[in-house]
Amino acid sequence: MHPVVTPLLIGLLSPTCASEHQRVTARRYALDCAMAVDFRARTRRIFALYREGQYGPALDLARSTASDFPDRADESSFWIACLHSRLGDAESALRTLEEALARGLWWGPDLMRLDDDLAPLRAEPRFLEIVAECERRHSSAETSGPRDPVVRLPDGRPEGVLVALHGRNSNADDFVDRWSPLRHHVIVAPRSTQRFGMRTFAWDDPGRTQDDVMHAHARASQQLRLAGLPLVTAGFSQGGAVAIGLALLGKLPETIGFIAVAPSPDFARSLVEQGTRDGGDGSRGYVVTGEHDPRREMTEALVAQLVASGVDVTLEVIKGLDHEFPPDFSERLPEVMTWVSDRHRPRPTA
C-alpha cells in the first residue's frame, strides 16, 4: 500500500481518472497516517521508558510493537537487541540480531559501530560478523541514480509547497505524513540516494544532498506546475539542518523560509555554514528543539548566529522534550506555517 501519489503517476492519468485516483489515495493515506501515528506513539513510549531506565517494560512494549508492525521490523528488532544489552543479556541481544539477519533484515554499519547500547557486544566475534554482514548488504544496496520524491497532494488549489527532509537513518515514505496537517500545501519529500540502513537514508554528502533535493523539486514541478507557489523547506534532525541551509542559500525557487524540528547542525555543517555566511536575506524560519535534546546548545548557538546575520527566526524550547517531535506538533504546525509564510502575522505561541 503506497501512502502517496507520485508526480509520474499523476502525469499518466486522465483528469477523470486522476480525480478518482486521488480520492482512493486519500483514503489509503488516511489509514496509513493512522497506523503511523500509532507506531509513533509506541515509539515515544518505548523511548520514554528507556530514558527512565525501565528497560524491562520498554522491552515488552518493543516486542509487542514488533508483532503489530511487521513492516517496521528492522527498527523494532534493533530496539529489542539494544534493550537486551542494557539488561545485561548479551546472548539474547546477539541472538535477536542474528535471527533478524536470517530474515533478511540489517542495519546501518555506522549505527552498529557507534550505538552506546551495543558497546558491551563489540568485542564479541559474533557481533563483529553481524556488522560485517551489514556492511556487505549496505554495499550491495547502495543507490546510484536520482530517485523520484514522495508527494502528497493538497485539498483543492495549493497555497504553497513544503519540501520535507527526513532525519538521518530515516526515509521519505515514513516521514511525509508528519506534515499532513498542511492540507492546502503540496508536500514534496525528496528521496535521498545516500543509503544508511536497510530502509533508511541520510544527507551526509552536501553535493549529493543538493542534487537529490533539486531533482525532487524538478520532478514535482514538471507534473504539478509549482511555479509561482511560495516554498518552505522543512525537516527533522539532520534534515532540519539541511532545510535551514537550503533555505538560506535559496537553492529552490520561490523559497520564503524554513521549519526545523530538533535540527542537528553537526550533521550538515557545511550547508549550514555556507547558508549562514552567504545567504539569509529575506528568510524567515521557525526552529523547535527539546529541553533535553543533546544538541540543544548547538541549536541555540545556530539560532543566535542566524539572528545576528539578519534572519527572522523564532526558537521554541519544549520542556521535557528530547531529540524528537513535540507531541502536539500536528496541532501547532498550521500556525507555524502561517507565521513563516505571512510576515504580518505574530510569532507562534508556545
What can you see in these coordinates?
The protein is of the alpha/beta class and 350 residues long. The protein folds into 2 domains: 53-141; 147-341, Alpha/Beta hydrolase fold, catalytic domain (Rossmann fold). Helix content is 51%, strand content 14%. The strands form 2 sheets. It has a 7-stranded mixed β-sheet with strand order 1-3-2-6-7-8-9, with helices on both faces. A two-stranded antiparallel sheet has the order 4-5. β8 (284-290), α12 and β9 form a beta-alpha-beta unit. The chain is globular, with a radius of gyration of 20 Å. Mean pLDDT is 88; it is low at 1-18 and 24-31.
Concise account of the structure shown:
By secondary structure, this protein is an alpha/beta fold.
Computed Rg: 20 Å
What is the typical, i.e. mean, pLDDT?
Answer: 88
Specify the CATH architecture of the largest domain.
Answer: 3-Layer(aba) Sandwich
- Overall 3D form: globular
Task: Supply the key terms.
350 residues; alpha/beta; Rossmann fold; seven-stranded mixed sheet; two-stranded antiparallel sheet; 51% helix; globular; disordered N terminus
Secondary structure topology:
Layout: H1 7-12, H2 15-51, H3 55-68, H4 73-86, H5 90-102, H6 109-114, H7 125-141, E1 147-152, E2 160-165, H8 172-175, E3 185-191, E4 194-195, E5 201-202, H9 206-224, E6 231-236, H10 238-249, E7 255-261, H11 269-278, E8 284-290, H12 296-308, E9 312-318, H13 329-341
Parallel strand pairs: 2-3, 2-6, 6-7, 7-8, 8-9
Antiparallel strand pairs: 1-3, 4-5
Helix pairs in contact: 2-3, 3-4, 4-5, 5-7, 10-11
